Amino acid sequence: MDKSQVHISKFLSLILRHKPETIGLELDNSGWANVSELLAKAEEHNRQISMKELITVVAENDKQRFIFNSDRSKIRANQGHSLSIELDLKPVKPPEILYHGTATRFIDSIRTQGLIKGRRQHVHLSSDIETARKVGDRHGKPVILAVLTDKMHDGNHQFFLSDNKVWLTDYVPVEYILFP
Ligand code: HQG
C-alpha cells in the first residue's frame, strides 16, 4: 500500500470498526455501510475518496481489512471491531497452536488475567509467528505467546476465522498460554 492508501485504510478502520458517527454514518447489525453514503459523508467531512481509490484500497490492503458485498453497494471491516456487531462467523476447529503478539509491558498482567479482548470484540490470534511479531511490535518490545488452541477447543472454547484469516476467540485463560 502506498502512503495515500494507508491513510484511507486508517480512516476506513476508524469508521467501519470503531466510530462511524464521526461522519454521521450508520452501519447495519452486521457492520455493513452503504458505499455511496460512506463516500458522500466522508466528503462532507473533508475526506474525499473516489470509488476507484476505495476499490484499490479494498483489493490491495495488506491485511485485507475490508470487503465489499457482491455488487459493491456495501462495504464492511472483516474484523477488529470495537463496535458491537454481528459478523455471522461460524465456529471453526482451530489448529493445534496459534500465536498472539503482545509487548513485554503487558506480560505480568496477562500472566494473572489471561488474554482479554479489551475494547475489541475478540482476542486476535494468528497462525504464523511473523504476523504475531508485527502485531506485538505495535505495542512495544514484542513478545510472542503460543496458545494451545486445540486444548482450548477441547475445553469448549469457540474459535472463528475471519474472512481475512485472523483467528478470533472470546478469552484465553492463562493455563493455555505458553510464555517464552
Ligand atoms: C493486550 C491489528 C494486559 C494484547 C492486528 C494487546 C490484530 C493484555 C493489547 C488486531 C491482556 C490489545 C488486534 C491482559 C491482552 N493484560 N494486556 N490481560 N490481554 N492484552 O490492538 O491483538 O492492523 O486491541 O496482548 O493485526 O494487538 O488494526 O489488540 O497487546 O489483528 O488491522 O492488550 O489489530 O490489525 O491491543 O491487535 P489491540 P491486538 P489491524
Provide tags for this entry.
180 residues; Arc Repressor Mutant, subunit A; ADP-ribosylation fold; three-stranded antiparallel beta sheet; binds ligand HQG
Outline the structure in words.
A hairpin with a 5-residue loop joins β2 and β3. Helix content is 32%, strand content 19%. The model has no long low-confidence stretch (mean pLDDT 96). It folds into two domains: 3-77, Arc Repressor Mutant, subunit A, CATH 1.10.10; 98-178, ADP-ribosylation fold. The chain has helices at 3-18, 35-44, 51-60, 107-113, 129-137, 149-154; strands spanning 33-34, 66-68, 74-77, 97-103, 123-125, 142-148, 159-161, 167-169, 177-178. The chain has 180 residues and is an alpha+beta fold. It binds ligand HQG.
Question: How many helices?
Answer: 6
Strand content: 15-25%
Distance between the termini: 33 Å
Named CATH architecture of the largest domain = Alpha-Beta Barrel
Tertiary shape: elongated
Strand order of the largest sheet: 1-3-2
Largest sheet features: 3 strands, antiparallel
Q: What is the C-level CATH assignment of the largest domain? A: Alpha Beta
